[in-house]
Design brief:
single chain, alpha+beta, about 375 residues, about 45% helix, about 15% strand
Length: about 375
């Protein structure tokens, strides 16, 4: 964590940066950087603090001047943000770029301090404590239990396939029908299947409770009911969108929202110039695409691609479904047509949220 304080010193205002790097449950390394009257900073002092809320808040209060805090995104970033945000003029959560070589907390901490001093923080993480708190907690619980349930089903299915058993379908997940399939396994593998089945039963129950909780919290948020009217969104995907995005005004344009959702097309090229028939160097007319952007929110990408699949399979009367069919007839590849459909749904959701209006299919003609 980088914290900057400003005092009334001449001719340049003095700044103080405090770097906090969590090392374990109990210890937290604090590095204090005093930036003097010159643009370059001078390192003066290091200290070690206990990872305790009272200790950290007292430490931040002891720094005089205007405080600007920078945190690295991690397990404790949300807790630190909620605790220290009232004590500072600004709190920024950064997602640093991956660095190669030997990892060192001290080097990383001073690098964050230097980025804070220079205003060179490139990737900030949005934090909004107090907004849709219950819905966000419920959606996070639903996501975790859903993922664990799917993994348990995959693990159980792989056990049967490893013994040459096929054609199980969903019967191995049903407590009333799985017995005859367990009987086809050898004794020891049968015991493993019984244990995995018991684990799955508990996860299914937990997932149902989490889903019910999320739907209950979604009823308390009016914007969720508004977004449910978008094609392919429904009662499950709408609260997930609200829980992740929180505020649509984070995105000035829909292209920014596409990139955040993993629907932005990446173009890279090392040969932008080529020779024509006369031997002259000219710029390439067609950009070379390299797939979709990877720095995305996986939940939103899954939501909008799933919504596109739902429209393709069930939205026969949707104008978006007709547009998708026209693209296929024009020779567009199915994966590119699905991407276009997902982007249109994402753009419609963002516009609906900003304008507080229900979905209008006439605008998608």
């Amino acid at each position: 964590m980088g914290l900057g304080g400003r005092a009334m010193a001449a001719p340049y205002p003095a700044r103080v940066s405090v770097m906090l790097a969590v090392q374990s449950r109990r210890l937290l390394t604090a590095r204090i950087e005093f930036l003097g009257t010159t643009p370059s900073g001078k390192r003066r002092k290091e200290a070690r603090l206990e990872t305790n809320g009272q200790v950290l808040t007292d430490f931040v209060r002891s720094v005089a001047g205007h405080k600007h805090i920078c945190l690295e995104e991690g397990t404790q970033a949300e807790w630190l943000y909620e605790m220290l945000e009232p004590l500072a003029d600004e709190v920024v959560v950064e997602l640093p770029e991956r660095s190669n070589g030997v990892k060192n907390d001290s080097v990383d901490a001073w690098q964050r301090a230097d980025e804070l001093r220079r205003g060179d923080i490139k990737r900030m993480v949005y934090k909004a404590p107090g907004k849709f708190t219950a819905l966000r907690a419920a959606a996070r619980s639903y996501e975790v239990t859903q993922r664990d349930m799917v993994r348990a089903k995959t693990r159980l299915n792989a056990l049967y396939r490893s013994r040459g058993v096929h054609g199980m379908g969903s019967e191995i997940y049903d407590p009333e029908q799985r017995g005859r399939w367990i009987a086809k396994l050898p004794l020891h593998q049968g015991r493993v299947a019984e244990l995995l089945s018991e684990q799955l039963d508990g996860l299914v129950q937990a997932q149902q409770v989490a889903e019910k909780w999320m739907l209950e919290e979604a009823k308390k948020v009016p914007i969720v009911r508004l977004l449910e009217s978008a094609p392919g969104i429904g009662k499950i995907r709408a609260p997930q969108i609200v829980a992740v995005v929180v505020s649509p005004y984070r995105f000035r344009m829909r292209r920014q929202f596409w990139s955040y959702s993993g629907l932005g097309v990446t173009t890279r090229s090392s040969s932008d110039w080529t020779k024509d028939r006369d031997g002259r160097w000219v710029r390439r007319e067609m950009a070379q695409t390299r797939g979709l952007n990877r720095n995305r929110n996986p939940i939103l990408k899954r939501v909008f691609t799933g919504a596109a699949e739902s429209v393709i399979r069930r939205g026969l009367r949707q104008p978006l479904r007709a547009s998708y069919q026209r693209q296929l007839e024009a020779g567009t590849k199915p994966n590119l047509a699905r991407l276009t459909l997902a982007r249109r749904i994402a753009g419609a959701v963002l516009a609906m949220w900003k304008h507080q209006e229900k979905y209008d299919s006439a605008k998608q003609q």
